[in-house]
Design brief:
Strand content of chain B: 5-15%
Order of helices and strands of chain B: EHHHEHHE
Structural class of chain A: mainly alpha
Largest sheet of chain B: 2 strands, antiparallel
Distance between the termini of chain A: 24 Å
Strand content of chain A: under 5%
CATH topology of chain B: 434 Repressor (Amino-terminal Domain)
Oligomer: heterodimer
Number of domains of chain A: 1
Number of strands of chain A: 1
Distance between the termini of chain B: 18 Å
Structural class of chain B: alpha+beta
Order of helices and strands of chain A: HHHHHE
Radius of gyration of chain B: 13 Å
Strand order of the largest sheet of chain B: 1-3
CATH architecture of chain B: Orthogonal Bundle
CATH class of chain B: Mainly Alpha
Shape of chain B: globular
Shape of chain A: flat
Number of strands of chain B: 3
Number of domains of chain B: 1
Number of helices of chain A: 5
Helix content of chain A: over 70%
């Protein structure tokens, strides 16, 4: 794997774990209407483990295949640009979809705490980051097209 | 669907050039090993500057590395 692939994989793993955590917290707080299970110690342990995982993935992604290896080349840039375009197009679907989630769950006259709004926006950004990483990895796995310089 | 294909002799030239590894060629051409693999598998057609760099790495002309197979109508022809 080259650096772009490793970085995309690293982001995908961390984003999926964070999204799973967010979904769990959201479900416990707003659907079951109770404080998420697990004490402060458990939450802190999960957070530290997540940071450790992210740190070790970053170290792994910085490891070179050869001392003279370039960080990115024209194919990597082409793939990254296409993934960015896919993410931009997806944003037009993901952002409106996420904004109607509270209305779908709580109804037209329902209400949610103000602090949950940043959480929802953060979740949407994580989804977009997941789409970007998946698009990058999918292009490496399947056909990556032709150079356009 | 008709397509125009760009075939290459990178793998053969590597072995003729003293069994040059993909990583060695990648380092000379200034790309990653994955790009060399993708080109050998026919999954990626390089840009013109990269094609020239690869040909230069083998010390041959660009037409000896890449072959254009015309199987469909050329645009603008």
């Amino acid at each position: 794997m080259n650096r772009t692939q490793k970085t995309a994989l690293c982001h995908l793993v961390v984003v999926l774990l964070t999204l799973a955590m967010l979904a769990y917290i959201f479900f416990q707080l707003f659907v079951l209407k109770k404080t998420p299970e697990g004490g402060r110690f458990l939450k802190l342990t999960v957070l530290i483990l997540l940071f450790l995982l992210y740190g070790s993935l970053i170290v792994w992604s910085l490891k070179r295949q050869s001392p003279r290896e370039v960080e990115t080349d024209e194919r990597d840039k082409l793939i990254t640009n296409r993934a960015a375009m896919a993410t931009f197009i997806s944003a037009w679907i993901v952002l409106p979809a996420v904004s109607v989630i509270p209305q779908t769950i709580f109804g037209d006259d329902g209400c949610i705490p103000a602090w949950s709004l940043p959480l929802i926006i953060f979740g949407a950004l994580l989804i977009l980051m997941m789409i970007h990483s998946t698009a990058v990895l999918a292009q490496y796995f399947f056909r990556s097209g032709d150079g356009d310089k | 669907m008709e397509t125009n294909e760009l075939k290459n002799n990178i793998r053969r030239l590597r072995f003729e050039k003293g069994e040059m590894t993909q990583q060695q060629l990648a380092d000379i051409a200034g790309v990653t090993r994955q790009t060399i693999i993708a080109m050998e598998q026919g999954k990626y057609a390089p840009s013109l500057p990269l094609a020239f760099r690869i040909a230069k790495a083998f010390g041959v002309g660009i037409e000896q590395v890449f072959e254009f197979t015309e199987t469909g109508p050329l645009k603008g022809a």
